[in-house]
Write a structure and sequence with these properties.
This protein is of the alpha/beta class. It is about 40% helix and about 15% strand. The protein folds into three domains: about 190 residues, Rossmann fold (3-Layer(aba) Sandwich); about 90 residues, no CATH class; about 35 residues, no CATH class. The protein is globular and about 55 Å long. The protein starts with 7 loop residues before the first strand and ends in an 18-residue tail after the last helix.
């Protein structure tokens, strides 16, 4: 707890983490974003290959989500999110990706680079990589061979996210990467830890595949909340039910328990499907909370609605119904 504000840690990557951070900053400024570092596509992939840096794209998006509201911060936020046009060597690169890569070379440390850019952006909180080196995702994928029982190994985040087959399991290369020490400290000192939403196999599950990070998640005294996606994703989780998402996470993270699973009430119909989801959540030690958290007509989370749910779950005296009681005044 920082003053009268709870300390919140959010783990993920890409647009899913952006949505979570946009919601959390309505509640507290004591935020730590822990970001996946396995991207190998686009501007991030090019900088990773050419400079050997941790892919900066997801880190940049997290910084933008937590940037301040002042005029200077807003100008810098638009700038770091800007992509160069044209057809030359800079075409497609994000300005922020180049700044993070440059600061990392100058300062010799990715965390120091993120902290420095965070000061320019007048950040609410802190953005950290989940590991100290760039990682590679490898997946076992079914449905790519004539025999549906045969799995093929697919390597790379972009390849995994866009495969026409069905992902069965993922792993990291290397398998035992060094976790970011500051990320471990943040989890240990958190009041609330949030995992998801996001690309399940390439943004969410990679966090629990870093052994030190999984150990920290298992050992923390923080309340742990899993936010499920609003719909299955083409390719990566095509055809997955909400229940299947939980089973897959459990298979990749033995020993991990969570307190609450948050899912949009419109994503799972009343009846048997909800009963199956509750049983799957129980295997993780969690209660399921069905709530309206979607932007109407989209598969995106509404930051205000999600913030309201997370505010209630962060209270230590939340009753067994999940949404009992009123928000603490300090969270309004």
């Amino acid at each position: 707890m920082t003053g009268d504000q709870p300390s919140v840690v959010a783990l993920g990557g890409g647009h899913g983490l952006f949505a979570t951070l946009t919601a959390i900053r309505r509640l507290t400024s004591a935020i730590t974003a822990i970001v996946t570092v396995a991207d190998d596509g686009g501007s991030s992939g090019r900088l990773r290959a050419e400079l050997g840096v941790i892919p900066p794209g997801d880190l940049r998006m997290a910084l933008a989500a937590l940037a301040g509201d002042g005029e200077s911060a807003e100008v810098w936020t638009r700038t770091v999110q800007h992509r160069f046009r044209g057809t030359g060597a800079l075409a497609g690169h994000s300005v922020g990706n180049l700044i993070i890569a440059g600061l990392t070379e100058v300062l010799g440390d990715t965390v120091a680079a993120l902290d420095e850019l965070g000061r320019v952006l007048q950040l609410d909180g802190r953005v950290l990589p989940m590991a100290q080196i760039a990682l590679t995702i490898e997946a076992d994928v079914a449905g790519l061979e004539a025999d549906p029982r045969v799995n093929r190994a697919i390597r790379g985040q972009v390849a995994v996210a866009t495969t026409p087959g069905q992902v069965r399991r993922v792993r990291l290369i290397p398998s035992d990467p060094p976790a970011c020490p500051e990320a471990l400290d943040a989890i240990d000192n958190a009041d609330l830890v949030i995992l998801g939403p996001g690309s399940w196999f390439s943004s969410v599950i990679p966090h629990v595949l870093v052994p030190e990070l999984l150990e920290a998640l298992i050992g923390t005294q923080a309340r742990k909340v899993l936010v499920l996606n609003l719909a299955a994703q083409p390719g990566e989780t095509a055809g997955f039910s909400a229940e299947r998402h939980l089973h897959v996470l459990s298979q990749h993270a033995p020993g991990l328990a969570v307190d609450h699973v948050v899912i949009d009430s419109g994503s799972v119909p009343e009846g048997r499907e909800r009963d199956h989801l509750r049983r799957a959540a129980k295997s993780l030690g969690a209660q399921v909370l069905f709530a309206d958290v979607a932007e109407p007509g989209t598969h995106k989370h509404h930051s205000g609605k999600l913030a309201s749910v997370l505010a209630t779950l962060a209270r230590r005296d939340t009753d067994s119904s999940g949404l009992g009681g009123k928000e603490s005044a300090s969270w309004r």
